[in-house]
Design a protein that fits this description.
Strand content: under 5%
Number of helices: 14
Oligomer: single chain
Number of strands: 0
Number of domains: 1
Mean pLDDT: 79
Length: 321
């Protein structure tokens, strides 16, 4: 296929995105949720590597894949507006801190619980988007986020709401550190998502990822020097390679979703990652879920179903006019 044909396909796809952006942004958000939950699952299968090591290996791959994509699609790397470049750098450092905290928290908590805490970012994104981007915060968004948080509480089962036995309480101190790390990370994740929305229309999805990957590749080894470097075997290498692929896919989907859609609404779709992580816990990691976790999952899933149905109905009404 010639370069001209590739560019033509890219242009056609861009036109398709522009025409259906009110719907396709949620498809991208769904893809991002699946990809990043898979990333978390893969991180759980690298117990011998530190969080900073994993971030370094992941970022190197992400940088290479993004460079290849940008070269083939002739995307711009630098922009004359210095404000845009400063925002790209800020997004890169915010993403670096978010990923370090996220991977560290994943080491201390079960996959489903870690995913639950990580998915608190949609509510933060909605608030940030309202404050900084002047996005409209609808009542349905608030109620959906509130209902999802109720589901989150049922899954997480915090000690101040649920009576825990002695064995569970003995693990709470270590888990508390992980929860704090993940919650702090979600604030930085929300910051990156709002920054992507701010600069997205003036750049492209590739350069946003490239800056983050470059900054993470440069600075994550500094954290690894503190945590220490550990050797990895062949199975670890395969997991690291898969980690890079799913990271690249998730990053592209997330950037596209936030560029095309409303950050607060798009972020809610990412709650599906909780359902996916629970399925991985049960059917792959052989974990046991209690009735509270199941009820929480149903709360989250039902909210997403109603929300997506409303989006599809609105899009059809728009097309019929």
């Amino acid at each position: 296929m010639s370069l001209q044909e590739r560019l033509t396909l890219a242009e056609r796809f861009s036109n398709f995105e522009a025409k259906h952006k009110s719907t396709i942004c949620y498809v991208y958000a769904f893809g991002a949720a699946i990809s990043f939950t898979t990333v978390n699952f893969l991180v759980k299968n690298l117990p011998n590597l530190t969080s900073s090591e994993i971030l370094f290996y992941r970022s190197i791959q992400l940088f290479g894949m993004t460079m290849f994509m940008m070269e083939t699609q002739k995307m711009e790397y630098h922009f004359p507006d210095t404000k845009i470049n400063r925002l790209l750098i800020s997004r890169g450092f915010a993403g670096l801190v978010a990923m370090l905290l996220n991977f560290y928290g994943l080491k201390l908590l079960p996959l489903s619980e870690a995913s639950v805490i990580s998915q608190t970012s949609p509510a933060i994104v909605g608030v940030f988007a309202t404050i900084f981007l002047k996005e409209k915060y609808e009542l349905s968004q608030f109620l959906s986020a509130l209902f999802c948080f109720f589901g989150v509480l049922l899954v997480a089962k915090p000690e101040f709401l649920f009576q825990l036995d002695e064995e569970t309480r003995a693990e709470s101190n270590l888990k508390f550190v992980g929860v704090i790390a993940l919650l702090t990370g979600t604030i930085f994740v929300a910051t990156t998502q709002v920054l992507v929305k701010t600069i997205g229309a003036k750049t492209n999805e590739g350069v946003v990822t490239l800056y983050f990957a470059a900054i993470a590749s440069i600075f994550s080894p500094l954290a690894a020097m503190y945590q220490g470097f550990n050797p990895f075997n062949f199975p670890d290498l395969i997991i690291l390679l898969l980690l890079g692929v799913f990271t690249f896919t998730g990053q592209m989907c997330r950037n596209k979703a936030y560029i095309l859609g409303n950050p607060g609404k798009v972020a809610i779709v990412q709650y599906f990652g909780i359902i996916y992580s629970m399925l991985l816990d049960v059917f792959v990691l052989d974990s046991k879920l209690d009735i509270y976790s199941v009820l929480g999952a149903l709360c989250i899933f039902s909210t997403l179903f109603v929300f997506l149905y409303k989006i599809i109905k609105k899009e059809r009404e728009k097309q019929n006019k």
